[in-house]
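Support case: adenosine-5'-tetraphosphate complex. Customer-provided input:
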Amino acid sequence: MADAVQTQPNPNAAFTPRVFSGIQPSGGLTLGNYLGAIRRFVEKQEQGIETLYCMVDLHAITVWQDPQALRHNTREVAAGFMAAGLDPQKSILFNQSQVPEHAQLGWVFNCVARMGWMSRMTQWKDKAGKNAENASLGLFAYPSLMAADILIYHATQVPVGEDQKQHLELTRDIAAKFNHDYGVDFFPITEPVIEGAATRVMSLRDGSKKMSKSDPSDLSRINMTDSADDIAKKIRKAKTDPEALPSELKGLDGRPEARNLVNIYAALANTTAEAVLRETGGKQFSEFKPMLIDLAVAELGPISNEMSRLMNDPAEIDRLLGAGARTARDIAAPILDRTYEIVGMIRS
Ligand code: AQP
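Agent response - structure generated as follows:
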């Protein structure tokens, strides 16, 4: 007789599957945002799960943003979402500050999260650096607001890049502590979705640094709005080493820049790094880079064209974001209301 299968109880069984994720409009979108996050967003949308995607403008202002640039970048991220395949008829697309419940729940979570938890966040340490005394209080509290972004919708899954894993763990800790402190099962224990060949795309200039929209060097990243010429130039100038490509993964050990280009190729070609090396092992970068350029231009060219088309009508983007925010509030408001009740606030 077969042994009885021991399965872990699903802590989220009582919650409707719902996906939330967001991107900061702190600059233009990068290939890292695209491969690590936006592609996953589209996949979730196409699986028919309820999906909410957000430009997290309140997060962006944790470091200085020029107001005009913030408005532009918010619209550009929205355009990037839609150009990459997010459809406002299928996903709820909005900017965070138009749904005040995020900040309201964020405050409650500021009172649940512990200072020690926040000070261990590597993103805080990286971004505040040696100048922590001068960093904004918002930057320190960033992960608590991120927990609120997710839990204000009772989201059960969050597609993100590898760099957000620690923040997702903190979101789970906040949900568990709230549930424990108030003796409820009110917030789900959200699952991170970190998938694909490029969950951590690295800088083209330094294979030990993440590709980032706020990196001072534009050559470090491929922007989703880059022209074919810019993409070609950046890949041609990307740092590599003098060796040929290996035919097995272990041959990439100690070669972060080579590994990065292989991972990017694999993600763009919807395959694995192993499969790429089987095909390209033995090639020099002078041969591999043009292959990568062709692939990147073929993928990003149509997206970039569609982004420019959408950006020609900013009023339409604003209209769509307003409509998305209203739909998002319909979900968020009752969850905030119930949270306040649980906490002991009078609702009259
Ligand atoms: N290099 C990357 N590789 C894979 N995924 C990435 N993401 C960001 N960079 C990479 C994923 O994109 C989503 C949105 O990230 P974000 O804009 O909210 O914040 P971030 O992670 O801090 O991204 P940046 O580009 O580095 O922004 P700045 O420079 O403003 O801090 C997340 O899912 C992230 O994992």
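The longest strand covers residues 18-23.

Case will auto-close in a few days if no follow-up is received.
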